[in-house]
Amino acid sequence: MSTPTMSGSALSAGRQEIGGAKVSGRYLRFGHFEVDLQREELFKEGERIRIPSKVFQVLMALIERPGEIVTRDVLRARLWPGGTFVNYDANVNTTVNKLRLALGDSPNKPTYVETMPRQGYCFLENVERADGLLKTSGLLTIAEPETVATPGERQIAASRFARVRNSRLAALFANGWGAAILLCGVLLGVGIVLFLHRPS
Questions:
Q1: Nearest to 35 by CA among 102, 92, 93
Q2: 137: Cβ–Cβ under 8 A, 6 or more apart, which residues?
Q3: In what side-by-side order are the strands of the sheet with 69-71?
Q4: Burial tier of 138 (Cβ tally within 10 Å: 0-12, 13-18, 19+)
Q5: Which of 46, 47, 86, 99 could covalently link to 134 via disulfide, CB atoms 3.0 to 4.6 Å apart?
């Protein structure tokens, strides 16, 4: 686990800067990532990663206190102010998992976000102020990681596709459009045959 570069006094000052209107350093950097505090955006090697607002808030709660445990109660209070009724535990877990997905992190071998059992989460990487962002070359939207399908999975997917296709065709015929299209095709075919074989 790497030792954070912010001292306790610098850390509290950093939190005040991040939370206040005047931010002396607009950007933070850790690992391959950068954060634009003003625009609330995350970048990886110059490419913007689109993440939901609550995921960004969890990231901020963690990188404001690198190396410290951020409790689940702190995250709940930050994400859902008093009077909001949600399943906090499930939603905190989901939001942290989305953050890990955005960072390419693993709960089993964490590089950035470590789960502290029955306590909360700890941000492992050094966090530094930056003067600017690396060159932005595009936008990344975080999606589920791709997996290689086995032959059995491909067969199941093909059968599901066939069922969906057949059900859509059945629905098309049930509401009359399919029959109308088929009738038009038959009439067009008959018309062509009659035209080609008309008496001279």
A1: 102
A2: 46, 47
A3: 69-71, 120-123, 113-116
A4: exposed
A5: 46
Of 10-14, 60-64, 158-162, the range with the highest mean pLDDT is 60-64
Give the dihedral sign, CA 108/91/99/30.
Answer: negative
Domain range holding 163?
151-196
Number of Cβ within a 10 Å radius of residue 63: 23
For the chain, what's the residue count? 200
51 and 100, same domain (yes or no): yes
pLDDT in tens, 42-80: 999 888 999 999 999 999 999 999 999 999 889 888 888
Given a contact cutoff of 8 angstroms between Cβ atoms, the answer to whether 35 and 42 are in contact is yes
83, part of any domain: yes
